[in-house]
Design goal:
hpI Integrase, Chain A, 2 domains
């Protein structure tokens, strides 16, 4: 984010890490998040970055502040600075969450006696509904795959798996051949925090995975260490997140789909179409790997047209004859 990148830095990051002992606490905090909280690398990186911003702000003060010196007033001053830079509310909320987690860690380690972040309030966030592709959009996307190209069968299997199982992009690129249980029609997914779950996979997706494995994948020279990775690039190594984004973007462009689509759009579409079809919300939660049912409940609000059709079809006073 531009405003985030322009955060006023009073000292170099090297100095921030060494002055007042911040580097020791931040390193310990990162280890705590990784080993005890089992958070993903992306989440750890975001939290550490947020605490580094606080460290930059604190050591830039005239007297220089360590975590032990910081008061609630200092934190409010820091948050006011963040807000004045035009940083969005969602990012502000994440920064506050990171700071809270940092001070809870320090409190647990007896490095501070009082948590100055305890009463910080998160900004009120409206629930933003994610972009969703229709079933017709998905079909157009699949039809846009040029099956004469070398990687076409792989790309077809990727789209079928993303949409058919609701995977995160990180879960897709980590998927192993040994994680696909063909006979049982399930795949084993390693999600956030290395938590594993079993997700049913449709026969259409399995068919294209089989065709890919026996076809173009079988013709690759697979690099050492990637023998069990399912989806590979032309060098026989695992695909990157950027490559998956590129495949989806190109297919949408070819299909004439105007919506801004990403791998997560296919995940949202998977969940939305299940809920619209009457799937149990708890089952959808398990398949998506959501810790909280409230995260899954967003999909009950996505399709106004679907709700409208239900009203017209089943309500006795809708005016439509049954």
């Amino acid at each position: 984010m531009k405003a985030d990148a322009n955060f006023a830095i009073h000292k170099s990051f090297f100095q921030v890490y060494t002055d007042m002992g911040w580097h020791i606490w931040i390193t310990g905090f990162a280890d705590y998040l990784r080993l005890e909280r089992s958070l993903s690398d992306n989440t750890i990186s975001a939290y550490v970055s947020d605490v580094e911003k606080l460290a930059t702000f604190a050591t830039g003060k005239q007297a220089g502040l360590s975590p032990r010196d910081i008061s609630q007033a200092d934190l409010l001053d820091f948050l006011h600075r963040i807000h004045s830079l035009g940083i969005g509310e969602h990012t502000q909320a994440r920064i506050i969450s990171g700071i809270r987690a940092f001070f809870r860690y320090l409190l647990m380690e007896d490095e501070v006696r009082k948590d100055p972040s305890a009463t910080l309030e998160l900004p009120r966030l409206g629930r933003k509904l994610p972009e969703v592709l229709s079933v017709h959009d998905i079909e157009r996307m699949i039809a846009a795959i040029d099956m004469s190209k070398v990687q076409s069968q792989r790309n077809r299997a990727i789209i079928e798996t993303l949409y058919g199982c609701g995977l995160r992009v990180s879960e897709l690129i980590q998927l192993k051949v040994s994680d696909v249980y063909m006979r049982e029609e399930f795949i084993k997914i390693t999600g956030k925090g290395n938590k594993q779950r079993m997700v049913p996979i449709g026969r259409e997706a399995l068919k294209h995975i089989r065709l890919y494995i026996s076809g173009s994948r079988n013709q690759l020279t697979i690099a050492r260490g990637f023998e069990d990775h399912l989806f590979l690039n032309r060098h026989g190594k695992s695909l990157s997140r950027v490559m998956i984004f590129g495949i989806i973007r190109e297919l949408c462009q070819t299909a004439g789909i105007q919506k801004k689509a990403s791998p997560h759009t296919l995940r949202h579409s998977f969940a939305t179409h299940l809920v619209e079809g009457g799937a149990d919300l708890r089952a959808v939660q398990d398949m998506l790997g959501h810790e909280s049912i409230t995260t899954t409940e967003i999909y009950t609000h996505l399709s106004r047209e679907y709700l409208r059709e239900n009203l017209l079809s089943y309500h006795p006073r809708s005016g439509r004859s049954n």
